[in-house]
UniProtKB/TrEMBL annotation:
Catalytic activity: precorrin-2 + NAD(+) = sirohydrochlorin + NADH + 2 H(+)
Keywords: NAD, Oxidoreductase, Porphyrin biosynthesis
E.C. number: 1.3.1.76
Entry protein name: precorrin-2 dehydrogenase
Source organism of this protein record: Paenibacillus glycanilyticus
Top enzyme class: oxidoreductase
Length: 212
């Protein structure tokens, strides 16, 4: 047992605080924005050029000074991402007391959460983690997965969702819907130019089911 539990969090409206404005803070911020986080603050006297640009564009709130304990108030996710290990430990401690989930960028075994490497293809999200044993391996496996699961998966998953919604609204004999949806998942990936008519697709899946 590696001691970690994976979840998918919805961050819209949730307060996320990053302490530190360097290279690692930038990576964490970009990950949050990609996930739709819209209530992010960065506490740091300095920012990378990219973070400065994003701050100017209103992507997050910049608290332009050194960390103060009050910064953790109301945070659901907190990132201790400065370049001072002792300070990161203190930030993490403050965060835990305030009830936040804490990520400490220089200490994998602290209580809290880790960030996995992520491949996004629309609604498909593939996350890889080595639980802190080797972030380099996670990043390598991500690159391999990116090559294997190309952009056609975004389109494919969109189609699978449409099929599923369509089938949920219609009446099927017990077990049939599940069986057809499993068969449809086997057909992925679809070429983007493939035109789908739900009725034709379902007829084809039914025929396939009978063959199996
Ligand atoms: C996956 C990814 C996600 C992200 O950051 O968003 C991520 N690190 C990434 C890359 C990366 N990080 C490091 C290298 C250099 C090679 C190496 O060390 O292996 C590379 C490789 C590279 O840059 O290619 C150095 C490093 N990382 C940590 C420490 C501190 C320590 O271990 O104590 C040190 C040493 C610092 C030092 O020496 O000073 C700690 C953590 N890094 C984690 C996540 C968590 C564990 C996740 C897991 O094991 O899967 C954890 C525990 C906490 C956290 O940060 O959440 C992101 C991939 C981005 C992508 O997808 O491309
Ligand atoms: N998790 C990972 O994947 C990973 C990878 C490499 C390094 N690291 C670790 O992450 C740490 C940060 O790396 P970096 O490259 O972003 O460093 P960096 O030097 O680029 O940035 C550090 C940031 O912390 C800010 N800071 C310093 N004191 C502060 C304070 N009192 N209050 C608020 N902000 C303060 C600085 O202004 C700067 O913006 C490294 O020291 C290293 O231990 C983690």
């Amino acid at each position: 047992m590696n001691g970690y539990y994976p979840v998918m969090l919805q961050l819209r409206g949730e307060r996320c605080v990053i302490v530190g404005g360097g290279r690692i803070a930038e990576r964490k911020l970009l990950g949050l924005l990609e996930a739709g986080a819209d209530n992010v603050a960065i506490v740091s006297p300095e920012l990378t050029p990219r973070l400065s640009e994003l701050a100017a564009g209103g992507s997050f709130q910049w608290v332009s000074r050194n960390f103060q304990p009050l910064d953790v108030v109301g945070a659901r996710l907190l990132f201790a991402a400065t370049n001072h290990a002792e300070l990161n430990r203190l930030i993490a401690e403050e965060g835990r007391h305030a009830g936040a989930w804490v990520n400490t960028v220089d200490e994998e075994r602290g209580r809290g959460f880790l960030n996995p490497s992520v491949v996004r293809r629309g609604d498909l999200l593939i996350a890889v983690s080595a639980s802190g044993a080797s972030p380099a391996l996670s990043a390598r496996l991500k690159r391999e997965l990116e090559r294997h699961y190309g952009d056609d998966y975004e389109y494919s998953v969109e189609r699978l969702r449409m099929l599923r919604e369509h089938m949920k609204a219609a009446v099927y004999e017990p077990g049939e819907r599940e069986a057809l949806l499993r068969l449809a998942a086997e057909e992925v990936p679809f070429q983007e130019e493939t035109a789908f008519d739900m009725t034709t697709w379902i007829t084809r899946l039914r025929a396939k089911r009978l063959e199996d």
